[in-house]
């Protein structure tokens, strides 16, 4: 049998993973770390804390793939049977390791004498390689057999597992791996204010001559692009990735708000900080969400002043000076009102910039003329105000999240064009 | 072979699940829904979008267990091969269903003519039962064979899957299940303002004589209690569950904010609505998070007026009338300032009630006297103001989330005591 030397199978062990009490996030972490050294996860099995089930899954996985990582079932209780299942499949006894027992005793020292039941955590299938785990009581263990293949046992708690994968398993597997193996190198671009289909249409075949894959990753807030090039070394693919990024920047222009994985609120915060501007918010339907997002990053006090949550129409009038007649004539969700909100927030705060949102988040409150999802956004910088109306699909949460993102994006575009706002409306309606 | 009639296996299908790009949350949802009708998930396999791998996993699962649910791989592209893999294992051809094709065409009507490639989504392994999916293009399908067993195919998108499980799969399986099987019946109690260890200590052995299990579920916002009793029928266990709830209510008193799974913001919103009060907020470190949470439920305009995000100290002075000398003497994170914030929010809004928060969310800004996590909360109702200082452990996000929860909980306790606030401080420091 010729095996794919880059394939790895995972076996996740634990009743709590099957009952729905715990969602397994270890597998995704392992897959991403392995991918970076050119290995692929080809199958995963989730089994109960039962020796027969573990042994059965391990046998099948070794036959198919030859390299297996197990997670969980290494604790000190009777439920924890991964060690004995692996020892059985590899036909080896469990070996007591004095140095592991001493390490366990040192960990326990402060809590009092260690229970004898914990001795099992010092046992290793004979000949196994131990990966010390400074964060917990169960070490990682590698058991290799020329005929059967390789099995690596890892503890289930995510913080312990992640450290062991990063610090021990990846170096161990990388050393055994074929040096010529190709690995993925990645770049990310994040966009706002342009639909996925519009991105795809504009990009068209523009990258077809480059050895770079483009994946579209739609998020509730916007569309991200992930560029991937495969090589055995970063220097081999950096040029192609650079060219791809450059072309996408030409094609998508200001729709790209960052290269990398930063949040739009961080990008906007950095722009305000750089320009020495303080921002005030005026939020109706988003009711604090924009302020919350702008203050998620530490250091937000450099650029964030504060603002007004004007859910009730009385709040719009009293806190922001929105004209009562305008409210009655046009309704709270209208261009004249959102402009007055932005102006009011700026002038009443004394901040240099303000952003305002008013909309119908639903599920109630819509009409034929202004259905749920109708949202008006405005940005005031100095004496100029830019406003924009949008229709946002989705349920209440999605409307609020997208309205907040749209407001931050409008602010970003206004700041990009300089202190004024001329020309912004045309630009941002481009999709 | 005698099979465990309550066992079900899951097969999750998709390259993105193995690559780490997507974390599978469908399996946990299915497991919890099945548990409620007395079925257990005994194994789960995650395989690639490859017909051989799916067929291989399905054959093993049918042999072991006889009842299998697959998720994913039902889309219209060449990657989507679940239908053909299942048809192969059951030895049946794929059957074109005219009524499914017509439903697909209706879904597409607005977008233009449907591509011919989508015809595969109207195909079903011969004799299969279709579960219509109003939320997406791929219906659920059940294929049953007296010898091989049962396989249910579900689409991968979580919103579609959940609705199909709830509305079609659970009723379908419940009808086939053994009526005498014991199932879990559950009650939930949610608490705020009391530590898990304090709950455990107070509860002690108080429920030991009842056939009810209590699980403590610590959340970032507070501690939930889950009560479980097993029986073949709700009437069998309702009495024991009622008694357990009653005893816990006696033991934990006002720390319990709801029986069920409602959010604290909903509970507080309902209390305000009932009392005909409108609320204003004054938020510094939480910067909009309390307002956002209070407006998450539809209909929040019944009780939520709006408020003030006073991140900058100038905002506290200008928007709320906090006294500049008090700010300088005591600092922004202090009892006198939080009291002035709550009073200012109430009087300047004209709302009957106000809640205020000021704190150090970190990571910077802490001192020996006021470390990161120092938070002051206040509630004003009418002329009375109740204030409370807390130290919240954790990183920036956790401090902000817990400060918001603490503020809502203080408001709840003040409202519980009537319009005034006397005695509230003593009561809520009880942990």
Automatic annotation (TrEMBL), chains A, B:
Residues 9-176 form the MoaB/Mog domain. InterPro entries: CinA, CinA-like_C, CinA_C, CinA_KH, Competence-induced_CinA, MoaB/Mog-like_dom_sf, MoaB/Mog_dom. Coiled coil: none annotated. It holds the Pfam family CinA. Belongs to the CinA family. This is CinA-like protein.
């Amino acid at each position: 049998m010729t095996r794919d030397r880059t394939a790895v199978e995972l076996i996740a062990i634990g009743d709590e993973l099957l009952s729905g009490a715990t969602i397994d996030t270890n597998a995704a972490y392992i897959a991403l770390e392995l991918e970076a050294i050119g290995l692929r996860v080809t199958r995963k099995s989730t089994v109960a804390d039962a020796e027969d089930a573990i042994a059965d899954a391990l046998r099948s996985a070794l036959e198919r793939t030859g390299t297996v990582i197990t997670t969980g079932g290494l604790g000190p209780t009777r439920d924890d049977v991964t060690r004995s299942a692996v020892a059985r499949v590899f036909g080896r006894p469990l070996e007591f390791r004095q140095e592991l027992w001493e390490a366990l005793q040192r960990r326990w020292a402060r809590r009092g004498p260690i229970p004898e039941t914990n001795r099992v955590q010092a046992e290793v299938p004979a000949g196994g390689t131990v990966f010390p785990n400074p964060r917990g009581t169960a070490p990682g263990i590698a058991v290799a057999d020329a005929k059967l293949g390789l099995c690596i046992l890892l503890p289930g708690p995510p913080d312990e597992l992640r450290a062991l994968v990063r610090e021990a398993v990846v170096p161990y597997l990388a050393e055994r791996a074929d040096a010529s193996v190709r690995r993925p190198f990645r770049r990310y671009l994040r966009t706002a204010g342009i639909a996925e289909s519009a991105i795809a249409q504009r990009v068209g075949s523009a990258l077809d001559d480059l050895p770079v894959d483009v994946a579209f990753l739609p998020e509730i807030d916007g569309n991200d692009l992930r560029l991937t090039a495969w090589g055995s070394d970063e220097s081999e693919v950096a040029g192609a990735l650079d060219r791809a990024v450059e072309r996408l920047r030409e094609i998508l222009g200001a729709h790209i708000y960052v290269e990398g994985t930063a949040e739009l609120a961080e990008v906007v915060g950095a722009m305000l900080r750089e320009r020495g501007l303080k921002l005030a918010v005026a939020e109706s339907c988003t009711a604090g969400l924009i302020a919350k997002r702008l203050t998620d990053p530490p250091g937000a006090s450099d650029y964030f002043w504060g603002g007004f949550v004007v859910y009730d129409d009385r709040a719009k009038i009293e806190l922001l000076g929105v004209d009562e007649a305008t409210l009655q004539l046009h309704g709270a969700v209208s261009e004249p009102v959102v402009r007055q909100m932005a102006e009011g927030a700026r002038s009443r705060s004394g901040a240099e910039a303000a952003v305002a949102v008013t909309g119908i988040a639903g599920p109630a409150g819509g009409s034929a003329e202004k259905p749920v999802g109708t949202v008006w956004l405005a940005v005031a910088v100095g004496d100029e105000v830019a406003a924009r109306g949008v229709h946002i699909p989705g349920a209440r949460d999605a409307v609020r999240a997208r309205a907040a993102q749209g407001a931050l994006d409008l602010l970003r575009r206004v700041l990009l064009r300089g202190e004024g706002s001329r020309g912004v409306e045309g630009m941002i309606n481009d999709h």
